[in-house]
Structure formats: structure tokens, C-alpha cells
Design a protein that fits this description.
The chain is mainly α. The protein is 76% helix and 0% strand. It has four helices and no strands.
């Protein structure tokens, strides 16, 4: 009986050392990583990258749902989508603000050139 237990313990320890006991997870795809990178860069530096992060992350999430991409990239792709949406909203607000500023500036210049009297 002791020999049987010793053999089981020995075999189990060998499997643990080899890593056979743990399920090996596939690494995240490149698109999921790029969605996150573009989302961070778009959010922090250049808002023009945010729509691409949104699009790339949404494509990756669709592929994960369809079983074409590893599920390990789901968190990265989701973070890329969220940062892409937030960055795209900031980009749209910035563009609206710039247009409003230009409109008001043009109206102010027009009033300054108009003669009073």
C-alpha cells in the first residue's frame, strides 16, 4: 500500500514539475493587444487613434465570440473598445469645440470690420 502511494506521489510531482497538471492557455492575439495599445495612445495622446482602437477591439471581440480568436484576449479587446469609445467621444467634443471657436472667431472678426454708424 505504501509503495502505491509513493508511486502516485512521485508521478504527481513529476507531472507538476512538467506543467502537465495545469491547463495551458493560448496567448492573446495581436489584434487584442493592438486594440489596447491604440486605445491607450488614443486616450492619452492623440484622439485620432481612438476610433481605430474601437473598431479593432470590436472585430476581435466578434472573432472571440465566433471562436476564431483565443478567449484570453477578451479583456484586452474589451479595454481597447472602452478606451476607444471614450477617446472618440473626446475627439468629437474637441472637434465641435474647435468648430464653435472658429465660428465665433469669424463672427467676431465680422463684427469688428462692420462700420458703426
Amino acid at each position: 500500500m505504501c509503495e502505491v502511494l509513493q508511486n502516485l506521489v512521485k508521478r504527481a510531482s513529476e507531472e507538476i514539475c512538467r506543467g502537465d497538471w495545469a491547463m495551458q492557455q493560448e496567448p492573446a492575439s495581436g489584434r487584442a493587444i493592438w486594440a489596447l495599445v491604440l486605445g491607450i495612445l488614443g486616450f492619452l495622446l492623440c484622439g485620432l487613434l481612438s476610433p481605430f482602437a474601437w473598431w479593432l477591439g470590436a472585430m476581435e471581440l466578434r472573432d472571440i465570440r465566433d471562436g476564431l480568436a483565443p478567449i484570453s484576449g477578451q479583456g484586452l479587446a474589451t479595454a481597447g473598445v472602452v478606451l476607444g469609445i471614450i477617446g472618440t467621444i473626446f475627439l468629437a467634443l474637441s472637434c465641435c469645440g474647435a468648430l464653435l471657436y472658429l465660428f465665433l472667431f469669424a463672427a467676431g472678426v465680422g463684427l469688428m470690420l462692420k462700420p458703426f454708424g
